[in-house]
Write a structure and sequence with these properties.
The chain has twelve helices and no strands. The protein is an all-alpha fold. It has one domain. Helix 7 packs antiparallel against helix 10. The longest helix has 27 residues. The two termini are 27 Å apart.
């Protein structure tokens, strides 16, 4: 782990460049640019609230904030894991940049020092760019909180922890997927089916209490359910999340990261043979 941290610090300028490129590419030729990170979740929240609030209005008080917490978390995971999955396979260096020169020549263009570009920076940069989008989308959550007159307490600052959990879990899954998709290209299409099922197994717009026990057990042990519930405890219920909930989430994040790093390190030298 120390090796990864040292490498990260050494190549943080390259990581910043990759993240900046991803964000510029996403909003290229868009009149509103980053505003879509706020407008899109707000628009989806309005539509889903109109559709589902009448169904769950008795079971879920303050449905807009409840929905927004789940929506932001799942959308971040979905975007981050999808982008990380194709980051190695679909990496196209940007002409005229330092990253391109190092990618093709193995030398830093300014110092002519021989360098090794760590391949894990590619999925990491995609997750980081998705994180920037999520943090921007938190403006939409604050707007909904103000409109619905939801009390704001000190526990809202604890939401940094579920954001960190979501980032670690997304990165771990992204690393695993980036390894799998290099060999099994159909994973890109299969994963869209998996995330659709994952969405319905995550209580984004429904309460767990409405589910039969056999399904509720699966949903309660869904890693994304745990992260969403911690965020709701901090933002909506104005409480510190139970220790057991946090501990289970940490275990899921640790397993995803350890497995992802192990698989990526084991296979990264064979990527060039499979691309």
């Amino acid at each position: 782990m120390r090796q990864y941290i040292d490498t990260f610090m050494r190549y943080r300028s390259l990581l910043t460049e990759l993240v900046s490129r991803d964000l510029k590419t996403k909003y290229r030729r868009s009149a509103l640019g980053f505003m879509w990170s706020v407008l899109n979740p707000l628009g989806m929240m309005v539509v889903l609230t109109i559709v589902f609030s009448t169904v769950f209005q008795q079971a879920i008080p303050n449905f807009p904030v409840y929905l927004m917490c789940g929506q932001l978390t799942f959308n971040f995971f979905n975007e981050a894991s999808n982008m990380a999955m194709t980051s190695v396979q679909d990496f196209y260096p940007t002409p005229g940049t330092i990253s391109t020169c190092m990618f093709y020549t193995g030398y830093h263009p300014l110092t002519m020092e021989k360098v090794y570009v760590p391949k894990y920076l590619f999925p990491l940069s995609r997750v980081c760019s998705s994180l920037v989008n999520m943090l921007t989308s938190f403006v939409a959550l604050m707007i909904v909180i103000l409109i619905t007159r939801t009390p704001i307490t000190w526990t809202i600052f604890l939401s940094v922890f579920p954001i960190c959990f979501a980032t670690l879990f997304s990165l771990g899954i992204g690393l695993i997927l980036s390894v799998v998709v290099v060999t099994f290209r159909d994973m890109k299409h299969l994963y869209s089916v998996i995330t659709t099922a994952w969405l319905y197994l995550t209580p984004v717009f429904y309460p767990i209490s409405m589910l039969p026990d056999s399904v509720a057990v699966i949903v309660r042990n869904n890693p994304l359910t745990l992260i969403v519930e911690i965020l709701r405890y901090n933002v909506l219920y104005h409480q510190v999340a139970p220790f057991v909930l946090v501990l289970k989430t940490l275990i899921y994040c640790a397993v995803a990261m350890i497995l992802g790093l192990w698989m990526f390190k084991k296979q990264q030298d064979t990527f060039i043979l499979k691309l």
